[in-house]
Amino acid sequence: MSSLEIRRIHIEAWQTSGMSQAAYCRKHGLNAKTFGNWLRIYRSGREVVRSSALVPVTIKPMSMTANTLRLRGQGDHVLELPSTVSPHWLGELLKCL
């Protein structure tokens, strides 16, 4: 369960509890100021859960002597990596972008 889901669960539980924010936080071991910040963000609608998205990729053949991997993004963005880069590491990097 993500931290955003946990925050939402606590906020909804507090709203139905009939307790003050301070009492709810004491009962559940939460910092009252932190809970207030969660509530402010929740009410403003800025709390967004990022979802995975597919990114279009075009694969172009390169000469066999190429020793770099070149990834081109939109615009002029280019990322060059050694061809020996770990596929696992590259996958983790692409998840972050």
If you compute it from the alpha carbons, what radius of gyration comes out, rounded to the nearest whole angstrom?
23 Å
- Proportion of strand residues: 5-15%
Spatial order of strands in the largest sheet: 1-2
Find the count of extended strands (DSSP E, 2+ residues).
Answer: 2
Reported for the largest beta sheet, the result is: 2 strands, antiparallel
Q: What are the secondary-structure elements, in order, as H or E?
A: HHHEEH
The tally of structural domains comes to: 2
Number of helices: 4
Average pLDDT taken over every residue = 81
Cα end-to-end separation? 22 Å
Helix share, percent:
40-55%
- The low-confidence parts are none
**Global geometry:** elongated
Return the structural class: mainly alpha
Outline the structure in words.
By secondary structure, this protein is mainly alpha-helical. It folds into two domains: 3-44; 52-97, no CATH class. It is built from four helices and two strands. The protein has helices at residues 3-17, 21-28, 32-44, 87-96, and strands spanning 68-72, 78-82. The protein has a two-stranded antiparallel ribbon with strand order 1-2. The radius of gyration is 23 Å and the shape is elongated. The mean pLDDT is 81.
Q: Brief overview, please?
A:
By secondary structure, this protein is mainly α. It is 47% helix and 10% strand. The mean pLDDT is 81.
